[in-house]
Amino acid sequence: MESNEASTLAHRDAQFHLHPFTNAVKNAHEGGKVMTRGEGIYVIDEHGQKHIEALSGLWCVALGFSEQRLIDAATRQMSVLPFYHAFVQRSHQPLIDLAEKLIGMAPVPMSKVFFTNSGSEANDTAIKLLWYWANALGKPDKKKIISRQRAYHGVTIGSASLTGMPHVHGGFDLPLDGFLHLSAPHFYREGKPGETEEAFSTRLADELDTLIRREGAHTIAAMFAEPLMGAGGVIAPPAGYWPKMQAVLRKHDIPLVADEVICGFGRLGRMFGSEYYGIKPDIMIFSKQLSSAYLPISAVMINERIYRPVAEESERRMTFGHGFTASGHPVAAAVALENLAIIEERGLVERARVLGERMHARLAELTAHPLVGETRGAGLIGAIELVMSKEDKSPLETPGRLGTLASEALARQHVITRNIGDAIALCPPLIISESELDELLNRVHAALDDVAQQVKP
């Protein structure tokens, strides 16, 4: 692309586009980077520069940026039935096939799938389903929702209330009342001196039990949780965490919603994060890698415990009054089906396990670096926590500054990723090769050395 055309694109973008999760004034003054093409794990910008997309876009592009089979699946479906809906007892074959496929893949018995268009919509739908369910059971007080600090569940009014991040709440008058947030299960930052991971997990389970007793189990509809927390910093739960937390929920008969938006479809080296951690949810939330984000689609999968009262309530009310125009869009559903077929045919779940071991071994070597306090993750998702002092885990000047410098250094290495505070997140496409993974990690190491030179006394 000619440079003047590229600068025009960036100028037009800054002139007309309000970006998500962006400083609008900064973007208006500086403009951003415009991507024009994708190729495997790479994206190519308006100047022709090739970048490793080390976060799979937004944790989502499992098959990379140029999978022809997904393009062909969309084209075939567009030529047959480009749109139909699922309202008032209507359906179409891609939707039926995808629902059946997901129920068959479920790690625990599930009953029905409700389709939406994004993770935010799916989590918002799950909240409404639970409230509807509680009313169907004749328990109108059973409406409070438990989530966690640093959780990310979306940005609609309901799902943003689940999210445990101040920058998602600030200025929006969120969270809504009735959304309760527990401590994040980050042992490195939240563990007490001398505390083991098991003891830390026991303390967090006791926190959950105390909260439920204080609020009253009869007032709590469910707990929402990511198996491994993604956008909050790639926080892998400590030893014993999920068995202890689920024991408390079972004791109080409170449903568990597993938000698999990032973990689902192979990211952790198992098909679902719930499998990896032995979680037995009542509701599961899917998006992102469901279609490799080639088209927007998400899903809420519910078990019979949730479905039966909801169905009976819909009969009393003559309808289940919820849905979106594009719920279960036929083209998105066709792409999702092809995407799942490719993940299975190419053994990408096992590949994520094997390459994940390689990635985490390389990340563990980085703990010798003067700026690295911790590396963590599972499968093909990881994070590097940066500190100025390994002894007291202190930041540079203000929290997040080291992470910003590292992101900038990685950009100079033509690696696109994101710092989450002082943690650098890595979530490459599942199709990444061994050599590409090694190249990515070499560039990460070079970027850390660059930052070390900038901040050395």
Automatic annotation (TrEMBL):
Molecular function (Gene Ontology), one example: pyridoxal phosphate binding
GO biological process: biotin biosynthetic process; gamma-aminobutyric acid metabolic process
CDD domains: OAT_like
Pfam families given in the database record: Aminotran_3
Xref: PROSITE patterns: AA_TRANSFER_CLASS_3 (PS00600)
Cofactor(s), names only, from the UniProt record: pyridoxal 5'-phosphate
Record key words, sorted: Aminotransferase, Pyridoxal phosphate, Transferase
Family: Belongs to the class-III pyridoxal-phosphate-dependent aminotransferase family.
Name the UniProt record assigns to this protein: Aminotransferase
Species of origin: Caballeronia cordobensis (Burkholderia cordobensis)
